[in-house]
Amino acid sequence: MSNTGVSKIICIQEGCNISVDGKCLEGLDKDNCPHCSIEDILDLNTESILPSPTDEVSQTRNVVENKYRKLYSATALKEEETISITSRSLARVIVLAGVPFSGKTTTIASLYDSFLRNYSYAGYLFKSSKSLIGLEEISFLSRSYSERNKADTQRTPYAIGKDNYIHFEIADPNRCTDLLFTDISGEHFENAINNKQDAEKLYFLRRADHFTLFIDSSKLLNNHHRAFTRKQNRGILKALLEANILSSETFVEIVFSKWDIVLDNKESNNEVFIVVENELKDILISRKIQTTIHKIISRSDFENIDSGEGLDVLLNQWINKSRYLRHPMTSINRGYNLKNREYLNFKY
Ligand SMILES: Nc1nc2c(ncn2[C@@H]2O[C@H](COP(=O)(O)OP(=O)(O)OP(=O)(O)O)[C@@H](O)[C@H]2O)c(=O)[nH]1
Ligand SMILES: [Mg+2]
């Protein structure tokens, strides 16, 4: 260590903790190790307040923690990584729900794409994201360098679990809004239908501002899939309501996804959508849950039908509705006479 500053041993070898515990992974002396270097991380002459050092390692640790901010991996965020976002603003937590293949992940990718292609989208600017690499990952199969003939989205693996958030910070002339989307496999929702314990595992729904249920429109057009698709989506709502994790504080959006397939099918009978809309609304209204209906095209399969339809309305709904904006905060006069508080009799 130099006399005027704090230095740290840096090792570029994966798994080596020499910077923390002083032990080289290969048992070498730091001066002989080809992977190690010593870097100055703080000039004591310019730093007035320092933690009292107990030993070299803890001193270095404290200094590092004080001087550097925690860095994000920039892939999809884990729940603990979202805390800095939810504590800095009234972030909107948006749970994208629906069985596998219903279009959840493609909708996030399409929203990101809309901001990349245009200076602004739906009156908003894209300000930042703490999960930019995650956004690029879910967009990969839609890019030309993936060398696909047709844009696609990779299935969200079941194995990534339920702790997977994509972040957008969106700005309009008056404010910035943080949006946190869950990007989880539809299998979690399928499992919840038949198993109350699996439904209860979707605990993060209790904090959700929005529960956006994706229903694949092409399945409702198909005689073989229609009845089962209806049953599945009724089942998801009932299971989450019975497990008491979907409450009246949360806004529910019923989304008929892949609407391009309906538009392209000249013989399609749209009555089925009204029937589904009404049966799901009935379930939700009985629990006083506010519901809106949306028809969206996240990625059109047809040249004469544009992608992005309905996403602007959905984005506005996500931004402008929050469970915490339902009840305007009021200051309550509790009638305390502060001078008479009992704790004032104590020195500490
Ligand atoms: N025609 C059409 N296809 C779409 C649309 N949105 C998504 N798709 C396609 O539907 C398929 C499934 O989309 P995903 O976004 O992966 O579905 P998901 O709900 O995230 O699925 P899981 O991750 O398995 O739960 C992909 O092949 C998409 O390209 C749309 O608006 N129109
Ligand atoms: Mg997905």
TrEMBL record:
Superkingdom of origin: Bacteria
InterPro entries (alphabetical): DO-GTPase2, P-loop_NTPase
Gene3D superfamilies: P-loop containing nucleotide triphosphate hydrolases
Record domain Double-GTPase: where: 93-319
Name of the protein in its database record: Double-GTPase 2 domain-containing protein
Species in which this protein is naturally found: Dysgonomonas alginatilytica
